[in-house]
């Protein structure tokens, strides 16, 4: 088990360099408990929508985010649905249930780092606190259903 503490800026940078931010998203700024950004729309009369993203929690390996737009845009939830459809969030391990976005971070992590998964995530004092766990299934000679362990047989 390990713990990683990241600021909002650090997390956004990590997502950006790993191409985990859709092309339609721009103008990303972190501000305490929120991340502010612009999302391009497929509509010519409304080129982008300002969105604030708030961390809500971590459930069953998924980060839960709440997307907040202005009251006028909230009246047109079909527009938000259309905007999010253009983002293809499922390609990024996401699922949309208005007004929340669920992101399966462990699916993405397992594609890059075997044997590590995120067990818990919290947002406190302007930082994301990420607790990881690991399993022996990635170790040579380990059984597929082995209990989580870090024993490698070395003294």
Helix-strand layout with pairing:
Blueprint: E1 2-7, H1 8-17, E2 25-31, E3 34-40, E4 48-59, E5 62-68, H2 71-75, H3 77-87, E6 94-97, E7 100-104, H4 105-112, E8 116-124, E9 127-134
Antiparallel strand pairs: 1-9, 2-3, 3-4, 4-5, 5-7, 6-7, 8-9
N-to-C series of helices and strands? EHEEEEHHEEHEE
Shape: globular
Low-confidence stretches: 144-155
Q: Mean pLDDT, nearest integer? A: 80
Percent range of helical residues:
10-25%
Number of strands: 9
Approximately what portion of the residues adopt beta-strand conformation? 35-45%
- N/C terminus separation: 20 Å
Rg from Cα: 18 Å
Order of strands in the sheet with most strands? 2-3-4-5-7-6
Protein model, in words:
- This protein has a domain at 8-109.
- The radius of gyration is 18 Å and the shape is globular.
- It is built from 4 helices and 9 strands, in the order E-H-E-E-E-E-H-H-E-E-H-E-E.
- It is of the alpha+beta class and 155 residues long.
- A hairpin with a 2-residue loop joins strand 8 and strand 9.
């Amino acid at each position: 088990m390990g713990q990683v503490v990241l600021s909002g800026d650090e997390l956004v940078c990590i997502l950006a360099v790993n191409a985990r931010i859709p092309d339609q998203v721009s103008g990303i700024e972190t501000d305490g408990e929120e991340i502010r950004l612009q999302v391009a729309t497929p509509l010519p009369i409304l080129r982008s929508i300002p969105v604030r993203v708030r961390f809500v929690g971590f459930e069953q390996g998924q980060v839960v985010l709440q997307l907040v737009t202005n009251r006028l845009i909230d009246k047109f939830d079909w527009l938000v649905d259309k905007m999010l459809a253009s983002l293809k969030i499922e390609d990024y391990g996401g699922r949309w249930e208005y007004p929340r976005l669920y992101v399966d971070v462990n699916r993405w992590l397992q594609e890059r780092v075997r044997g590590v998964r995120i067990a818990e995530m919290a947002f406190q004092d302007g930082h994301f606190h990420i607790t990881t766990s690991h399993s022996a299934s990635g170790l040579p000679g380990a059984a597929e259903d082995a209990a989580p362990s870090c024993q490698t047989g070395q003294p």
